[in-house]
Every structure is written in C-alpha cells, then in structure tokens.
Design brief:
149 residues; Rossmann fold; 7 strands; binds adenosine-5'-diphosphate; binds magnesium ion; T6A_TsaE
Length: 149
C-alpha cells in the first residue's frame, strides 16, 4: 500500500501527471471514491503526463472516451453500469494499445484484469485528499516505488 496526500486540485494533477509519465501501453488503473473525490481531476493530470493535449472530461454519456497523446488513453466511467453484468468488450481496452483508467471500477470488478493499479480516493476535507495506491502485480509495484521516489 502506498499513500499520497494532496492539498489542492493542482497538487493532485501534478501527482497524476508524474504517474502518467511512468505508464506504458497495457497498464490499467482503477479509481474509486465518492462523487467529487477527485477521480476525474486525477485523470486530467494523468492525461497530461501521457502527452494528451485535448481537455479530458468525464465520459458520463459515453462510458469510454479515447484520447491520443504520446500514448493513448482510454478513459472509462462505468458508473452507469452499476446494475449490469454485461461485458461490453472491456478486454479490447485493457489489453489494447493504450493506458486504461476506470472510474467506479467496483461496478465491473469481475471484468478487471489481474494486473492493475487500484487507487482509492479519500476526501479528507474541501481541499485535502488521500490517494491510496494498491498495486496488483510486480510491474505496478515498481511503478509505485518509482513514484514514491
Ligand atoms: P470525481 O470524478 O471523483 O467525481 P472530480 O475530479 O470531478 O471528482 O471533482 C473533484 C472536485 O474537488 C473538483 O471540483 C476539484 O476542484 C475539487 N478539489 C479540491 N481539492 C482537491 C484535491 N486535493 N484534489 C482533487 N480535487 C480537488
Ligand atoms: Mg468523475
């Protein structure tokens, strides 16, 4: 378990931008936490770290949005799949040629790949957040070690 605390939106973006720079295609990250915790904010910084120039917004109506930067980003928000157990072809993304970020991943937990970085966002107060990183698999452990410095 790795813990990162941020005291502003900007600090969160810096954290996830640094993480983004360590990622390679095929990496899968999950983001869970209450509404307004900072999942999408985290993804915006991550996208910057991947060299994505476009603005990343929550893909509420589409479930999956794809962005091209130096590396490709697949941004999923599966909130609307809460009561569904349908596989909508997740593996094409998880094992595809980009980095996948899944907001509200508990709703599709049966479909997640074994190797992944689980991130739980805890809202402490208005400005402060704790990001709990739980790496699954050796590659993500190394990524966390490097991020921690
Ligand atoms: P989610 O996707 O989890 O619903 P968002 O990222 O859309 O959450 O929203 C997070 C909100 O919290 C934003 O309005 C952001 O400005 C605010 N915020 C305040 N402090 C922080 C912080 N330390 N990290 C991330 N967001 C923060
Ligand atoms: Mg969101």
């Amino acid at each position: 378990m790795y813990k990162f605390t941020t005291e502003s939106e900007e600090e969160t973006r810096q954290l996830s931008e640094s993480l983004g720079q360590l990622l390679i295609e095929g990496d899968v990250l999950t983001l869970d936490g209450d509404l307004g915790a900072g999942k999408t904010t985290f993804t915006k910084g991550l996208a910057k770290g991947l060299g994505v120039k476009r603005t990343v917004n929550s893909p509420t109506y589409t479930i999956i949005k794809e962005y091209r930067g130096d590396k490709k980003l697949f941004h999923m928000d599966v909130y609307r799949l809460e009561d569904s157990d349908e596989d909508i072809g997740f593996d094409e993304y998880f094992y595809g040629d980009g980095i996948t970020v899944v907001e509200w991943s508990t709703f599709i937990k049966d479909f997640l790949p074994e190797e992944r970085l689980e991130i739980r966002v805890e809202k402490v107060d208005e400005q402060s957040r704790v990001f709990h990183f739980e790496p699954k698999g050796n590659r993500m452990i190394r990524v966390c070690e490097e991020l921690q410095g």
